[in-house]
Amino acid sequence: MTRIQANLILLATAAIWGAGFVAQDMAMETMGPLWFVGLRFLVAFMVALPLALREHSRVTAPVNHREMLIFVVIGLALFGGATTQQFGLLTTSVTNSSFLTGLYVIIVPVLSVIVLRKIPHWIIWPAAIMAVTGIYYLSGGELASLTTGDLLTIVCACFWATQVLLIGVFAPGSERPMALSAIQFLVCGLGGIVLAIVFEPITWQGFVGAIPEILYAGLFSSGIAFILQIIGQRWTTAPQAAIFLASESLFGALFGAALLGERMGLLGYVGCALLFTSMILVEIVPEMAKSKYRRA
Predict the structure, then answer these.
(1) Which of 73, 80, 181, 232 could form a disulfide with 10 if both were Cys (CB 3.0 to 4.6 A apart)?
(2) pLDDT band, residue 46 (cuts 50/70/90)
(3) CB under 8 Å to 223, separation ≥6 — which residues?
(4) CB-hemisphere CA count at 13 Å for 7?
(5) What is the pLDDT of residues 158-177, one digit of tens each?
(6) What backbone torsions phi and psi does residue 28 show, to the nearest 5 degrees?
(7) Rounded to an integer, what distance in angstroms lies between the CA atom of residue 200 and that of residue 197?
(8) Contact, 100 vs 150, CB < 8 A?
(9) What DSSP assignment string belongs to 183-240?
(10) 21, 98 in Cβ contact below 8 A?
């Protein structure tokens, strides 16, 4: 697979995720966040399981228990991101959620410093200031007006950053990318269902009413899109992957406006523009510097 093909796969992934924000928001009309997270990822697990079994029959090396443990940890990061994002949608808009989730593009390099001891490019710091300014404008010019959902979505971005970082570190050297998909979906699905049974009531009518959203989020946003993410990240660089995946925020805002009629004031649009610009700068500037260095 060429890098261009991999990047196009990641762009398709971002579009599917962007539409998924609408499905996630609509599902909250009939069921709780934990039930939705659990059910969507169990559907995603059923999508990934046949592929993982087929992959297992072709891989000659025995299952590495350390690798399986890593897959579970990635699943826990996915669960943290999915649940905080879903709870956040209770009190924030699809547009806000999609842009604030995209902050993981800036958080990934920061985590690289903490976890991998890699010094970030200088652009990280002005981009971080730009992102904070974007959040300020997205809140209408008053950070005090940020909703609980906005704050939960920022926490969600930290979990997504952890998941993307771990996949970037371990997926390229793994012979079991489909097993990684299946296991992270299973961990997330079981976690959601177990907690939902304890903390959230549900009715048959509520379940039936959310079936279209569960199927879209499970089959496409979770199952197909996360599998495409892992495939794409195996054939492109992490910075380029982050750029294309960050376009999820644009698709989310587009679908939110088209399907839910969401609108915001001028300051909100300025905030979205600053957030998206900061995400792109974090990835493009270091790549341009590398290209210039190689030509020299």
Answers:
(1) 232
(2) very high
(3) 43, 44, 45, 46, 47, 48, 185
(4) 12
(5) 998 898 888 877 776 677 87
(6) -70, -10
(7) 6
(8) yes
(9) HHHHHHHHHHHHHHHHH----HHHHHHTHHHHHIIIIIIIIIHHHHHHHHHTSS-HHH
(10) yes
Q: How many CB atoms lie within 10 A of CB 279?
A: 26
> How many Cβ atoms from other residues are within 10 Å of residue 154's Cβ?
18
Which of left, alpha, beta for 117 (phi over 0: left; psi -120 to 50: alpha)? left
How far separated are the first and last CA of the chain, in Å rounded? Answer: 29
Residues composing the chain: 296
Please check whether residue 138 is in contact with residue 92, taking contact to mean a CB–CB distance below 8 angstroms: no
Token pair of 43 as six digits = 């559907």
Chain segment 194-218, per-residue pLDDT in tens: 999 999 988 888 889 999 999 998 9
**Residue 159: both structure tokens together:** 């979990």
Is pTM beyond 0.85 here?
Answer: no
The string of DSSP letters for 159-188 reads HHHHHHHHHHHHSTT-S-HHHHHHHHHHHH
Residue 51 token pair: 């592929």
| CB atoms near residue 254 (< 10 Å) | 15
